[in-house]
Amino acid sequence: MRIHTYAILLLLLSIFPLKLLAQNNAQSSVVDQINLGVKYLSEKEYIKSIEELIEAKEIALRNEWYAQAFNATINIGTNYFLMLDYGEAFRYYLKAYEIAIKHLGKSQEMAVVNNIGILYVEEKDLPKAKESFFKAYEIAKDLDDNEIIGTYGINLALVLNKMGELDQAEKYIEEALPILKIRSNVLLLAKIAKAENLFLREQYVQAERLALDILPQINNLSLINEGATVNDKITLLLLISKIYEKQKQFKKAQKYVLMARAAQLNIEERIESYGSLADLYGETNEFHKAMAYKDSVLLATDSLYAIKNMALFKSEKVKFQIQNYQNELLESKKLLKQEKQFFYTLMFSVILIMGFLLWIYKNNSLKHKQRKRIVELELAKEKSDHLLIEEKHREKVAMELLEKERLKNELDIKNRELTAKAMYLASRNELIEEVVQSLSINTQITTNTPLKNQVNDLKKHLKKDTQWDSFFVHFEELNQGFLDRLRSQHPKLTPNDIRFLTFLYMNLSNKEIASLLNITPESCRKRKERISKKMNVPEGLPLHAYLSAI
């Protein structure tokens, strides 16, 4: 199966122009020139593209605009890659790598390392490709970008599959699958890599099931680069064919190879398909077809070599034209240098004249400056007066805030005193109640009428105790209008509910309220929940905060 499918997709993503922020007109012009070079590249006008990009690179380096220089350099390398001149592509990628290391950051370094890995894949140097992809993957880890981590992890997994390191490949695939859900194209490659891994492990049934599940998804996938989708489909079809071949289902294998061949438009792309068909027809004893496809393999191979030779010829032609262009650029630089010398001479003369005019101007404008100084002093005085007024206003506001804080502190102190009084009343009544209960169960008292009457008087005293009424009167004096507003907004509240909410408004803890009401803290918590529901307090809003806003 071809491994360069994913590589070309990721490489082409790097040739789209960066949206660089121009700092001035000259820098904006360089950005436009880079974008034009990329446009020519997408249209396969390689000579025009390289000319524009080299000029942009030289200007960017001369002005130390390293982001633009990097973008131009890496796209020059991409031109040579697509022209099949991998040596020249590698040379420009190394230049881009040097710019990234010295002047830019990890993101640019990662992009170059990935493209270098792609070159190694095309040269069939899988150990070097693995090394480059792993470095790009490690940088993505440092940048903590999940999408890039998943993308480069799949690059690495595909190479590891080819090298037979299946456990390591599976590790990167399983890591990538959950984090590539919004990158449909790379997620598809991850699934293809998974199916290939299963195939190489000789788990043919699982590989078949996954591959057939992926196949319908390719037709529905909309990508920026439609050609990459076709390549993915061809890769998957050939994988399915190999699965059926291993299962001795040669007819099915032939069917999927024929589908792959139909999707390959150029004859040189069909070498693998023709080879597979020759082997499969040999297995079914259809030797005349097998021999025909063997001949097709030779024809496609010759065509591929011819294309590579033509590409190399064009590359050398481009190099020659670029060399001429650089010589012209050198002559242009010499002419520019002479123009600069004339410009500097002219500027020096202008500066002398301007200096004389400036001397005259200074003499004539001295009185004007003195008058201006007087006006400035008057404005400064007005500004100082204004600042003084503002400072007095800030002091007044600060005093008002301090007074509010003092009143709030006094209210808090009185509320704590009121709390202490409530605690005292509760403990006193609790003590009287305990005395009454202990006396009531005494058999001697039940037969002693005077003592029994005194016990009944104590019980009446508990019922008629007016201290709690005075407590609520005192609370209303300190927190004027609170109880009225509470009853108005929530008329369904019972007196016991209002009493409980009064303690809560005073910011007493569950334990303190439980002690006042002679209940357990757990009962106190449940009562708070019940009253919150009764008052329709919004979920997530503490009851005390709700009461404070009433």
From TrEMBL:
InterPro entries: Bac_ResReg_Asp_Phosphatase, Sig_transdc_resp-reg_C-effctor, TPR-like_helical_dom_sf, TPR_rpt, WH-like_DNA-bd_sf. One of its GO terms (molecular function) is DNA binding. PROSITE patterns: TPR (PS50005). GO terms for cellular component: cytoplasm. The keyword NADP does not apply. It is found in: Cytoplasm. TPR repeats lie at residues 110-143. Belongs to the Rap family. This is Tetratricopeptide repeat protein. It comes from Aequorivita flava. The lineage of its organism: Bacteria, Pseudomonadati, Bacteroidota, Flavobacteriia, Flavobacteriales.
